[in-house]
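Chapter summary example.
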Amino acid sequence: MASRPNILIFMTDQEQADVVAPGHPCPTPFADKLAAEGIRFTQTYTPAAHCCPSRATFMTGLYPSRHGVYNNVCTPTAIHYGLAEGVITFSELLAEAGYKLTLCGKWHVSVEEGPADRGWEEREVTGNKGTLHHRTIDQWRHGPVNPPGKLPDNPNGDTRRRGHVQRPGWGDIALYKTLPDGGPKGYEALHDAKVVQAALDALGELTRQEKPWCLFVGPVGPHDPYNVPEKFVKKINPADVTLPASYADTLEDKPRIAQRQRRQLWDQLSEDEVRESIAHYWAYCNLEDALFGEVLDALDASGQADDTLVIFLSDHGDYLGAHGLYMKGVAAFREAYHIPCIMRWPKGIEGSGRSIDAFITLADFAPTFLELAGVPVPEGLTGRSMVPFLQGETPDDWPDAVYSQFNGVELYYTQRIVATQSHKYVYNGFDFDELYDLENDPAEMVNVAERPEYQAIKQSLVRKMWRFAAREQDMIFNAYGTVALAPWGPADSLAQETS
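The structure predicted for these 499 residues follows.
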């Protein structure tokens, strides 16, 4: 295998894995090109369906219990505002090893430090040090966010606008919108175009110097709201959009918080509006693919493509109408946790066009980058290097399950996922638990957690949860009666681990 490759990371924000899967109706020609020339990791997951903990995991190779970022760091309700003391990012170690690093776009790892504090040159950075996502009490006194306004045909202003979800006193959620084209490409006026232009400028400089380099490109799309130029919206006819298989889920056997979100918010949308929202989201993904294509074309033109590991991925997904929900958060369904991951490196990947079905998490990237750069990988990381997969090998002891660590965002919940290829258990400390038979119910429609015939499977997954929690020093071990709500405690599971 070639040594010390350049590394180009294109991380979108809130993109479902399904969108770039083979045969999906959303056009993503550049992601498809990358997959044909490289490899797909079809079972890649985030540890938390929110930006900050997931991005911190990507940068450190650690889960939230170890790196310290549990939720949105840009609000006064944050548990921590940055990485825990002593936590090291892969960028620092690459910089020490002689790499030149540039970060363009979204950071959102810490408000106490910016990318420059962790070895990166900064360009067009958002979610940077000092960023605040919070309205003061005085701002609320002056009115809601996104006031609904008055419809032209209804001066009373009491009719919901198409694509809007009404929230009295909060302001509407304007879920999607068609924007005017910003130029010949359609997207020149958008923020993400500025991020990509900064990346193109940086790429031109990086490829002209002698050091190996790492370029991170972080657009903010397709994060809600799905506001997309008309050029892209016209490519997808909402009438051709099929509603998600789980859209018919009544949620009666799911936690009440999911029921409340759907009934209070998203059930305001008609099925036609749901189709329109999905079409706008796919259009947004198509736009991001076009932006990715600009970066990919520039790399190919530089003459350094053969020596560069290119990675296309996202930080987390979006429910996008699955189970009647949107955005991401406390619900534990696949669509918010399953993320795209495609890699290309002509000189270093064996067998182009392959698909790899092993479980991958965002914690596995930092050790991968370090191994490829010839840098000793720190001991005790949550993640493992993916280099064997690049070489066409599958380690015998690769994890057979993926795990989540979710403690809520502003509203706090204790929730943990343990998923294998066949079953998925969700521990909800705030409500009853969930168990899904993925082989017979891949859409996660029927919660079988209380069925007698599944209790042995459920207990085996709970034991996996406790062993992973012990390894990662997760904070769910308090035995007090009002918080020790897992159906089986840790003692038996940990005793079996050491026997």
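To summarize the output: The chain is about 30% helix and 15% strand.
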